[in-house]
Amino acid sequence: MNESPIDKVADLGRDIGEYIKQQRSNAKISLRQLSKLAGVSNPYLSQIERGLRKPSAEILQQIAKGLRISAEALYVQAGILDLPQGGPVVDAVRADTTLTERQKQVLLDVYESFRRENAATAAAGTATTEQPEPDNKE
């Protein structure tokens, strides 16, 4: 049996709600505490977690701030953003269930900064080695 587009949207709502509830549980924050931290009403947050409401990107950003995780993680989970391209290191970090979303994001930020630094160093090294040799004809 094929799912209709409406069913798929409903599934996304349940998925993001379950994900938020899981992150809240991992952070050991009550629904009421997250409601205050995120500036979202307690009943509305409860409806999101139960999959009855699909939050906007703005609400997801507020919830991410309250959970101290990246908004991107919630956007990906909600289907707003595609999963970023990875590689073996990125995939391993994202797959690690023992790390919080915030820890994963910090690790990935450090990893990417090292990659950018190495790429810049390599580009600078290539630029200096590509200089034409001076003529030593006398």
Automatic annotation (TrEMBL):
Compositional bias per record (Low complexity), positions renumbered to this chain: 119-129
Stretches for region Disordered: 119-138
UniProt KW keywords: DNA-binding
Span of domain HTH cro/C1-type: 20-74
Stored InterPro entries: Cro/C1-type_HTH, Lambda_DNA-bd_dom_sf, TransReg_Diox_bact_type
Coiled coil: none
Domain of life of the organism encoding this protein: Bacteria
Protein name as it appears in the record: Helix-turn-helix domain-containing protein
